[in-house]
Batch of 2 targets.
Target 1
Amino acid sequence: MAQYGGLGLFLILVQSAPSFSDTWALFFATHAATLGSWFLLLALALSVYCFAAGWLGLLGRDAASERIGETARRAGIAVFYIVLLAGITLVAAAFQDNFSLTYILHHSNRELPIAYKFAVLWSGQEGSLLFWALLLSAYGFVLRLRHKTDPRLFAHASVIIAAVQVFFLLLVNFAAHPFGITQGALPADGNGLNPLLQYPEMVIHPPMLYLGYVGFTVPFAFGLGALIMRYPGEKWIHITRRWTMVTWAFLTIGIFLGSHWAYNVLGWGGYWSWDPVENASFMPWLTGNAFLHSVMMQEKRGMLKVWNIWLVFSTFLLSILGTFLTRSGIVSSVHAFAQSSIGTWFLAFIVLTLAVCVFAFVKNRDHLKTEHRLESLVSRESSFLFNNLLLLVACFVVLWGTFFPVLSEWIQGNKVTVGGPFFNKVNIPIALLLLLLTAVGPLLSWRKTSTDSIRRNFQWPAIGALVVAILLLIFGVRPWVDSSYFYSLMTISLSALVLFTIASEFIRGGRVISKHTGQNLLVSITQLGRRNTRRYGGYIVHIGVVIVFVGIAGSAFNVDKEMEMSYGDKMQIGSYELICRSYTQEDKPNYGSEWAIMDVFKGGKQIDTLYPERRFYKASQQTATMVANHSTLKEDLYVVYEGLNQDTGRPILKVHVNPLVNWIWIGVIIMILGTIMAMLPNTMPAPARVFARVPAPVTGD
Amino acid sequence: MTTYFLLGIVTVAALFYIFNVPLGVAAGPEKTRLNYLQERKEVIYENMRDLNFEYRAGKLSDEDYNSLKASMEEEAAAVLAEAARLQGASTPSISETKGVRA
């Protein structure tokens, strides 16, 4: 080999690579269950050590305690690698069609496209719990690497994360084992992935949602840790702010990807149905949102400490409750996993966590004394307080409506389901009030605001919003005809108010910079954002929220029509004319499908051809809808292939015209961009100078 | 056999990483009241900068601005005084409190 030098060695390695990889592939296929099971057991043992040694390390202050604490931190880091190995083992088994693992047999099949083989990891109960554990270990990994920011606070947070990690690793080791072995003769093929999950967004929707759910463990760990150690000051809030924002952003993306998926796959023409599992993700989003606003009061004024700590606790508990809802089978949902005993584990964990929170709070409540009182009802503080109250009322309404069927069954013996009208009736007025506060809040000053300041700040935005309302009335929105029109009018007018107030904030701030630097207003406004990323990033998020609201307001003007169509049949809906050019069937390895070809005309001119489809997945023996959508900024023409009429053999098509839907997705993108901006550090100094008078030092008591 | 060998290597590597802690690992100093006051001072100064900025942007009346500025200055002064007392200094230097720029 020496005569060939480095090149020879390389060639030999390349030639031997296929046989080497084949050997390893065979090795993994044969031993996946042993490897995966061992990784999970090892991760559990290390997590228990991380928790116990971490706690022990925090009890002492000597060098030995610090060394024990360091071993705990390292154990937490090692857990990430070990759980990652377990995750890789399961995904590799899916790629190898290793049906000797029960989980792979139930959630994959040979013809499943490659991208969905990754999705196998979170498509079933056991795998998704492993994914939960993996994400939690990843968050813990990052946290433990950044421990030098505040070693003792991070050590407390690390111990709490380890405790949560122990719970999830107990689940995957003893209650929902993803590496269980198939008994008896191996079937030739697996049952396949749920067809509803075979959609591109499903490869990223669950991970985003889980990153959100799991991520709330981090602020919870910091909050509980800060309370237990009686952390002096509010720096812990400053440290956790970015963690919370990242988590909240992931949950936002997850929720809206879910909505987008529901809109495009479930084929009922809507994007939100107040399904229990949708509600489960919405509740921690609401409390997390409340927390992101109310922390500013604690950071700036040392107020609402008790409120904030309970918001952190509630958000985490609601995340766990959401996972419990999905897995226990106590509620019916398109998203829910099969009924299992795992709900008892979650219930026990929720009760135990709540008990720990209550104990820590009672023991240390004197540490949470507020430093200032609310000075005026017309102040930034009170706007945050009302914002928080409204978000929590909305959360309670969603919680009540979600659990009402369960409660009614316990009390009356029969299940009474609460539908969309209940949630809409209560939550739409709350949402409108929140929009009003979004407009009002930024224009109020901290502590108190005089009528003179209110007048000078609100005059122009209010006139602008009034003009928008009048224009809507002129263009035919009649609020007295239907309550949905009234809500639409209010939503769009209040959205305009928010946009005008935000615009005035940017223009006023830009003028100050412009005066200070001599630059033009546009450049100054750009600089403004870089000088205070948090505030102006927050405003961008608000712009996104407003755009989402405008998109939702469009639903008041939805129309739909259902028709059985044959070759050449026409359907008129809104300004569109649809002609059925053809309908046919097709057979593919993974599924068979029926679909129609629809030519779309507008104003006598063909603008598109749509292919609404219905698939039948062979492995799982289930059907799925593939909606055809002609989407514009003004409206969506949404066509659903409902199936063949068995008597006539002709397809039944349902067509919806849904105005403004695209603005919802655009608004979400803006919300995320704003969140990213708010997380960035300020890159330019603020221009204003600060002067403080200093009295003589206080002496004695 | 290969499986157990591989698992053994992973386990030993993890344990080696966990327990091979270098000497002189320190968790860092405990946070003191003085650290807290320093953080508080920074927050109050930031609040004052925001206040000045909003005033210059025309969002606040003179009456609101003067009253808010006075109460923030009092708050800052109390924090600085306590910090000075803890540090054992007689009086905080005026240069410490004037003309702070972010």
Target 2
Amino acid sequence: MTAIVDYRAGNLTSVKLAFAAIGEPVEVTSDPARVRSAERVVFPGVGAARSAMENLLELGLVDVVKEAATDGRLFLGICLGMQILFEHSDEDGGVDTLGVLPGRVRRFPNVPGCKVPEIGWNQVNGGAEYYFVHSYYAELGPWTFGKTEYAGVEFTSMVKKGKLWACQFHPEKSGRVGLELLKGWLAC
Amino acid sequence: MLTKRIIPCLDVRGGRVTKGVKFKNNIDLGDPVEMAVAYSNGGADELVFYDITASAERRPIDIGMVAAVAETIRIPFAVGGGISDVSDMERVILAGAEKVSVNSLAVRNPQIISDGARAFGAQCVVLGMDPVKSDNPKCPSGYEITTRGFREFTGMDAVEWAKRAADLGAGEIVVNSVDADGTRCGFELTITRLIAEAVPVPVVASGGAGNPSHLADAFNVAHADAAIVAGMVHTGEWTIAQIKADLAAANVPVRKVW
């Protein structure tokens, strides 16, 4: 079973529909026991880092998510769900996050002509474009697999660390290339 | 590099996509879901659906259509028309739309923008606006906001309204020029540029696209982040791929893999 973790961080409809489109049954759940017993865990998220951490704490999901990301199960963080895998986010005046991955999340600088948030399709590793919506980015680090450039910054758009994958962009909204990525993750 | 988005706009009336000129003389173009699939497969970066008769008929937006589109395509889409409060926005977003567009409603009740942004995030809230050239002294930019499809003048300055909407939490602003709408003679570059340079959020040029050079102007001259197309692609005269090829030749970054 593939569990999609619901910690009240945004709408999960498109994540659910994307897995349906590739024929993968999923269960959307906030129940720590269900996440613990899932074979594969999807950790999405849209919104702010602080309220995301507060929700995880309140729902008793902090340790369960850390465990799922590190115990060798297939794990996929998406957008905010990738950002809070790092150690610290500068969002909301600074908040310590899950610390599963080394590194820090920062806000895009204000650069003339570059609107923040970044909204739209941007290239990963100079290749195919994926759909991004974000104001904060993860710095490059040892597990950076995909790099993307915006507002004069080169940031981590994708992480691969064994079975732990995470992406800043939204594969569920990235058309055919996004679905290919989800299939690749399931087959990993 | 972040690419410029090409967004086909589908005006829906009675469950069918239609196209009119200056909001009038609507003709039938096809089924919304079938057209969404065709545009998504053809390289459109995003779609926008307006339920154009919902407000006039005082009925909520067609959620069945929103859900059917969401189940079928995997690119972002926005929905507008027939939104009267945050619970309408919520229904549209839970059905799978990425964004909800408000226009006349936000003029009457600007708080809908902040309420929507607080509930779903600014990226979900799009402000649509219909500015028209005006010599109203209350509108120093020279453009006045109209509502209800050009029928009512508000006395609001278009640039001031755009700034206020962005402050309230609108994540994106669609500048739909009433003067240019449906003419296929090019976007209204002046007001698009004034707004693109005045607000910190992405601006979408809308109304008047007739050929790829009009889009190149929206990006290179008016500094828009995205552009809406309708008649020029709905008639089959241009494909999204042709538009993107011409834009790439004009040094506009566009998505090439889909």
